[in-house]
Amino acid sequence: MTVRHRGALAAMAAGVAALTVAAVVACGSRPAEDVGAEEAAALASATPAATPTATGDPSVPVNAGTLPAAGTTVPPVGLRIPPIGVTATVDPVGINRRTDEFEVPPSVDRVGWYRYGPGLEAGTGSVVIAGHVDSADQGRGAFFRLRELDRGDTLTVTGADGRERPYRVVAREEYAKTRIPLDRYFARDGSPRLTLITCGGPFDAKTRHYRDNIVVTAVPT
């Protein structure tokens, strides 16, 4: 999973890193036609009612920031997506300081939660989980079939608190990696939502990268 610099995104909420990216990558083939794009955009611009809370070919420059205080964030630790046969461990990830890349777990059967964004307890914003589609060495990854998800499909995210949280898919979109609106998907505002990212589109044998990103948006149910 990699991310290429494209320009500064709007700063995230106070006390959280500001992300500067241009494309989030992970890596299949072309999905069916996009669905739910308008709904996904509306979620990003919506102002949800107050809700009580508990208590990325490559390079991604990240401005200095701090994580939320200990105990205030509920990280996702497990992901189940029955329609495409996914049961995966979720690891907290940030930025690889050596490569400046979004640091998705090296094992393709695991996926990564962007720990500088919202946790599962947040009443606003996008919880981002990204993963590989495949690997020349390891074969199919956890998100190999992500492009098959459709509106109405359901999935479950388990938090570090042991609670299972159900979500419903509302959108599936494909973007060229240079055109993905990362400020929408890496955001701490708007309605609470889950964003799953991997890659797709044509594979460039010379660069060894896929051209596009597949983005699935889901909402709590």
From TrEMBL:
Q: What PROSITE patterns does the entry give?
A: PROKAR_LIPOPROTEIN (PS51257)
- Keywords, sorted A to Z: Hydrolase
Q: What is one Pfam family matched by this protein?
A: Sortase
> What Gene3D superfamilies does the record tag this protein with?
Sortase
Q: Domain of life here?
A: Bacteria
Name the Gene Ontology molecular function terms of this record.
hydrolase activity
Listed CDD domains:
Sortase_F
Name-wise, this protein is Sortase family protein
Instruction: Please name the source species.
Output: Micromonospora chersina
Which taxonomic lineage is given here? Bacteria, Bacillati, Actinomycetota, Actinomycetes, Micromonosporales
